[in-house]
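To: structure desk
From: M.T.
Subject: fold request, one chain
Message: Could you run this one when you get a chance? Sequence is below, nothing fancy, just the single chain.
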Amino acid sequence: MSEEHLSPTHKFLKTLTILFVEDDPDIHQLLDRVILRHAGTLITAHDGQEGFRKFQEYKPDIIVTDILMPTLDGLAMTKMIRDTDSEIPIIVTTAHNDEEYFLRSIDLGIDRYVLKPTNPHTLLKALSHCARALWRRREQESANRYVRFVLDIQPNLLLVTDHERLEYINRAFLNFLGYPSLENFLADGADLGEWLLTRAGEPFGVQESPGCWIQTLLATSQEQGVVYLRGTASGEAPTTATPFAITFNALPELNKFIFSFSDITHLEKEKQQLEVQAFTDALTGTCNRARLQGVLNAELRRAHRHEIPLSIILCDIDHFKRINDQFGHQTGDDVLRQVAALMSANIRAEDILARWGGEEFMIVSPQNDLENMRQLAEKLRALIESGQFAAAGHITCSFGVAQRQANDTIRELTERADRALYAAKNGGRNRVEIATNA
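Reply: Done. Structure tokens follow.
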């Protein structure tokens, strides 16, 4: 048959190298010609020891071997080869049909079993079968290499998983983690759940079984669509977590998921900047009134729910109009900034300072009672009285203090503080007044 009429399998067989191991010279003479007629290259050996040596030297594509041979038999040689290469197709030829040989052959993963006397046609069918399987495997490997190439040139971080384990991670992802390959990453005993973080900064895999992060990742990609990753070069400390938008595609027929991570650091920064602009007083850097409303609402609900104290202070700069009129609005702005900075430096981390309006400030203090707030207001009053404020020199402030009562609304709480502040103003200014329960 001319080569152009050969089937794809036989054409592929003509490109392969066959190692034929047989101690009988007559069988060699017969089958060597058959194999050479259909294969690309034939390597021969006369016992298992020589066969194993030539396997190591020539790296054949398919092995044909007898079982019973001197020095080292075919199954012993096969075991040595399987310890090195678990994939290479191996065809066994033997005159024995003993069950023990069959069982040993099965254990060693023999691909085909041809009984002697060997029919050349039967051997050719066995070779064709192995060549066809090898061709398909190499086609699949080639396709997989192409897919990996395509994934590796993507700028997004990509990974492939089944329901339980990580199967592939692309070059961009490896570079982010600081590993040269997936093998190095896994050899380090790493679990990707330690790198994946929630918005709260908690690793996905904490106190869970290995691979549980995959289900968390699936849920996160469907619900929030944003995760955080900490990049860590092997042996180095973790870097700051980076936000990523995450999407996934399911491949049900393969039981696999492909996750894609897009760096949204710039979007997160823009979002944070917008939030700062939306909720920060541009002049003093404190919370603005819009943000304060949210804080008061949340803290008041928490205080009602847990029956814990919540207190506020209203502060007003005395004679502030006189400062603007005498020294100018620029000096007035400087005074506002300095007063805000002084108060901010002398309250607790959990307290919130906000510009209530004009020259008025409010301090919201969770889990703080009326007496503690009175002492704080008195401390702030004294610090302001003794300070120097821009060109205005000495200034004073008046303070009204109120504590949450049962079933208070924001309006009721702030109105009591406002009445106390009004009383401080009417009482001569530069003083602290405590709100009554009325």
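Reply (cont.): The longest strand covers residues 241-251. Let me know if you need anything else for the meeting.
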